[in-house]
Automatic annotation (TrEMBL), chains A, B:
This is MarR family transcriptional regulator, negative regulator of the multidrug operon emrRAB. Residues 29-163 form the HTH marR-type domain. InterPro entries: HTH_MarR-typ, MarR/SlyA-like, Tscrpt_reg_MarR-type_CS, WH-like_DNA-bd_sf, WH_DNA-bd_sf. Pfam families: MarR_2. It comes from Frateuria terrea. SUPFAM superfamilies: Winged helix' DNA-binding domain. SMART domains: HTH_MARR (SM00347). The lineage of its organism: Bacteria, Pseudomonadati, Pseudomonadota, Gammaproteobacteria, Lysobacterales. It comes from the Bacteria. PANTHER family: HTH-TYPE TRANSCRIPTIONAL REPRESSOR YETL, TRANSCRIPTIONAL REGULATOR, MARR FAMILY. GO terms for biological process: response to stress. Keywords: DNA-binding, Transcription, Transcription regulation. GO terms for molecular function: DNA binding; DNA-binding transcription factor activity.
Length: 178, 178
DNA sequence: CTACTTTACTTCACTGGTGAAATATGAGCT
DNA sequence: AGCTCATATTTCACCAGTGAAGTAAAGTAG
């Protein structure tokens, strides 16, 4: 219920105080990290909120959107796991839910019978097409006051961050040697 | 398991295809939103991962950090809820967990006996001081390649976004009139 | 001082997400 | 073929977070 601005203000002060006690803390980076996490979390909430009227949650929606955006409208649980950053366990639940609502179908693959093929149905497509437009005003509103340059900068910095995070996992594992 | 860069690439393509079917979609803003959510989520995971060796989760840690950063080392569940964006329900669980580990104490307020006063213990302070330093290299690593200007831009843009999100909630409620 | 409202927190029941083990198919080796 | 190892998905048991209702103490009005 507290406004995000207030949370940020208190975080700024908090980090300021902590970095006096622990001077070798990378305070600027810690601030940016907390900022990103807070804003990201609030965005998440906003999305969840916006989807609530349609009785669908964020991960179900994301899964459906990936299928919708595919030229052939189909995928497999494994692939969907990769792109939604969900575990296989949860993808089973998501698929169950979407099948129950008739938005996707689930069938056995013919080349590889371990696989399951998931496909968006016409009803699923209609659902997405009805769902999206009401979301647009809020998406735009989140970025009011962003110049084109701002948008480009933001995109660039987030992508650079993504790149760094990918490397972060690659490097520090002297545990893969058998 | 998939690298974030790959997820981003497929998101870019997906939005490209969708925006051809639904041309009035604010594609640039949608991309930024998805980017932010993906990077935010990955950051979250990274933090959770980094805290795992200390057997503490993100929200418990955040709660403890707020107490640590306070001049008097104390707060109340209600206040902690505000600043951690947690529900009161969950704060009860968090406090239970931290009390059980001896990192905080929980006692009744004397002015207002509805209130509960939560205070970090010396053991809690020691725990934080041991926990933080190993985190620093990763925090710094996430922002390698960021110039000072980049950091300032990123901070500015995130704060602007936070501001927009705060307004987003204020405006669109013609439901508060009784 | 009693009765009503509000505030602060807790309890309970449920949803969402995860790790470990189970199941089943495929692929490679001999 | 028969054996072993890897891959794809599901099931099960558990942790984390939420909404609604419960409890207890203030605040407020008649």
């Amino acid at each position: 219920m507290a406004r995000l601005g207030d949370c940020i203000a208190m975080m700024d002060e908090g980090i300021g105080r902590v970095s006096q006690v622990i001077p070798d803390m990378p305070a600027a980076e810690a601030r940016l990290t907390r900022l990103l996490l807070m804003v990201g979390h609030t965005f998440d909430e906003a999305v969840e909120q916006a989807l609530k009227p349609s009785k669908i949650n964020h991960s179900d929606f994301l899964t459906l959107m990936i299928l919708y955006s595919r030229p052939d409208g189909s995928s497999t649980p494994g692939e969907l796991c990769e792109y939604t950053s969900q575990g296989a366990t949860n993808m089973t639940r998501i698929a169950n839910a979407l099948v129950k609502r008739g938005l996707i179908t689930r069938g056995a693959s013919e080349e590889d019978r371990r696989r399951v093929v998931i496909r968006i149905t016409p009803a699923g497509r209609r659902f997405v097409q009805k769902l999206l437009p009401p979301l647009f005003p809020r998406v735009s509103a989140a970025f009011v006051g962003f110049s084109d340059t701002d948008k480009r900068s933001f995109s660039r910095l987030l992508r650079k961050l993504a790149d760094n995070l990918d490397r972060l996992d690659e490097v520090p594992s002297p545990k893969d040697a058998p």
